[in-house]
Amino acid sequence: MKNTLDPLEPKADKATVRRHNLSLVLRAVHDEGEATRAAVAARVGLTRAAVSSLVEQLLGGGFLTESGKTFSGQAGRPGTALRVARTGPAGLGVEINIDYVSVCVVDLAGTDRVRLTEHLDNRDVPPGEVLARAARIAARTLESAAEQELRPAGVRLALPGLVSGGTVRQAPNLGWNRVAAEELFGRALGAVRPGPGDLPVGSDNEANAAALAELWFGEGDGARARSFLYLSGEIGVGGAIVVDGELLRGAHGFAGEIGHVVADAEGPECRCGSRGCLEQYAGQAALLRGAGVDEQGGLPGVAELERRAAAGDARAVAALERAGRMLGLVLSGAVNLLDPDAVVLGGIYRPLMPWLGAAVDRELALRVVSGLWVAGGGRLRASSSSGDAARGAAALVVRDVIADPAGYAERVGTP
Amino acid sequence: MKNTLDPLEPKADKATVRRHNLSLVLRAVHDEGEATRAAVAARVGLTRAAVSSLVEQLLGGGFLTESGKTFSGQAGRPGTALRVARTGPAGLGVEINIDYVSVCVVDLAGTDRVRLTEHLDNRDVPPGEVLARAARIAARTLESAAEQELRPAGVRLALPGLVSGGTVRQAPNLGWNRVAAEELFGRALGAVRPGPGDLPVGSDNEANAAALAELWFGEGDGARARSFLYLSGEIGVGGAIVVDGELLRGAHGFAGEIGHVVADAEGPECRCGSRGCLEQYAGQAALLRGAGVDEQGGLPGVAELERRAAAGDARAVAALERAGRMLGLVLSGAVNLLDPDAVVLGGIYRPLMPWLGAAVDRELALRVVSGLWVAGGGRLRASSSSGDAARGAAALVVRDVIADPAGYAERVGTP
């Protein structure tokens, strides 16, 4: 039955408790942005003395810094303000998409500190070569990070396909099938990276990583939704489902594949083997083709489409309206199934929202059975500009550091 | 960020800990079916003495019974076998559907002990009257329960619509709109029920309740899936999503509405205001109409359809095949979004599976992008016969008793 009632935790040994509490304190400062020891103690429910001892260890390990004096709001006694360090522990995120690779390093606060993006065509290139190229880009990014004294705890790949257990099971738009991405990337990075030791490599779906970036770093009206559908418009259409601030990953890790939800049972064949998938109507190629822009045009093509739509080009506007209807159609089903707070459109949909949005919203208002979707009600929005898949992936690495700072210190050492 | 790290629980007062531990022990016996005090102590991590004291209280309160002597497997010392009581604490579940009302009382083990079902047409009857009728049926059921010495802690309604905060926001097939179902039912039950005091009334969507019954009581191959989509074929098509053994309820409690996911954008108008909803192709009326059976025929109509299909009637078989294709089409989208372990078809789909199943499975195998859906792979199945919405609703009441037996003793008293 549902209501899990766990026994009170058996008494943990002292070292385990301290390790746990180190993380609690680091996380408290991370979440607050800036906090005194007293504020941390109040938040985590430990004594001031215990917090002070933990803070000393975190300062020594380079996880926290203290800056100047501040006045605690409650007691009026001056306290030193703690912040997470801007150097040291960091995360490396590598988004490999169809027509670009974007690598970034974030610090403990999740701030994007180094970014290197290359636009290139990864289709019809052997997976090993794509991953080796990405590793070279990552190595250059790591050089910049080292100059900023940032030392990533690991790498997380963000990949446009079905990712599970370190392997891309399928990425139709890349033409990948059972590619051991983590292993290939890790080997390639080991060969080109300066410095000793291997960085642990993880991997995730790119829309998942982008959705987490939206959850953690999204700004602006309504960015605080805790349950939302995220769509990433690229050459393919990726998707992710966030429920109560957590990714819904599915039984095999393959949830969120909205690009392959059927929009029209009798529609054109899709690279996935099915017919009439949403991608066939709202993917980048379909959008460009519908607007009469060269469908191989990549991001410059999208910019051209945006220019034409802004200039009132009837064909461009009609193509975007059509794609918006199909997006709305499929999204209405997803909203009926999942009842999220919001729908967030990212990737190429972000700049195209002025011409897509109304049609999407209209379909949703017509077809969401709860009647809770009102066109113009603000529940449909473009993704924030402050997060993307590479940043989300890098932040996942940092999240692991925050969950176990002692583990990072053991592996990577202290400054 | 994701990894929530809670501080170690502050020291709870003794009474709260005892209350919590009472539930732990009751739940341990409930989950095991039969257990010695020693086995309970091992499972919950409390001392044998503490468990014995808690067991005494639970025996006194009528939550547990002990039966004969048994031998514990490990020590060889005889121990008394504990079981949850077959009398006393119970739950009342009331499913109000379009063309029937089914009421059941389950005991602490979740066993269906009393069942009263009336087939009748609830359409075009004022909601207050439908609920009053259901209350009379419930009162009769309670009389039978009392004769069996079962004393329900409360009632849970299972309703075919969008249910939130005690109100049916919308039930298109009943024609209900913002009906204060809990209040109306509670008042009606208070007027007709024998005995003192009001039973607390709760409410839920019927597919949600049926999915929980499937989760908790499902039997047979594959019934142990912890993540599945549940479809309830009735006059409408209800749906529920179970993820890791929990209902996914959505931001407003309206998740799972698969009956109103679009199957064909240009399809016939639906009572919900949209077009081409799955219900228009796979609801009971569409199925019967397609097969040339009187679409107002209700359950006898479904039995007639089943007879015709079994006899090889071409029109009946074709209608079921068509409905199966549309079910599979919409389900493929839901599987791409949610990546569940299994899809479970309940309600009228259960007897019709021999003629629906292959088409559903085929569409899924064609359209699920992970390639993990193999036709005939066993991930599509009919619901178990051992659970339904009324039982699921009643079990939800019992679950609350198990979560706080002391609360039940305070409210309802001891035997």
UniProtKB/TrEMBL annotation, chains A, B:
InterPro entries assigned: ATPase_NBD, ROK, WH-like_DNA-bd_sf, WH_DNA-bd_sf
Name under which the protein is recorded: ROK family protein
Origin: domain of life: Bacteria
Ranges in a coiled coil: none
Listed PANTHER family: BIFUNCTIONAL UDP-N-ACETYLGLUCOSAMINE 2-EPIMERASE_N-ACETYLMANNOSAMINE KINASE, ROK (REPRESSOR, ORF, KINASE) FAMILY
Similarity comment: family membership: Belongs to the ROK (NagC/XylR) family.
Pfam family, one: ROK
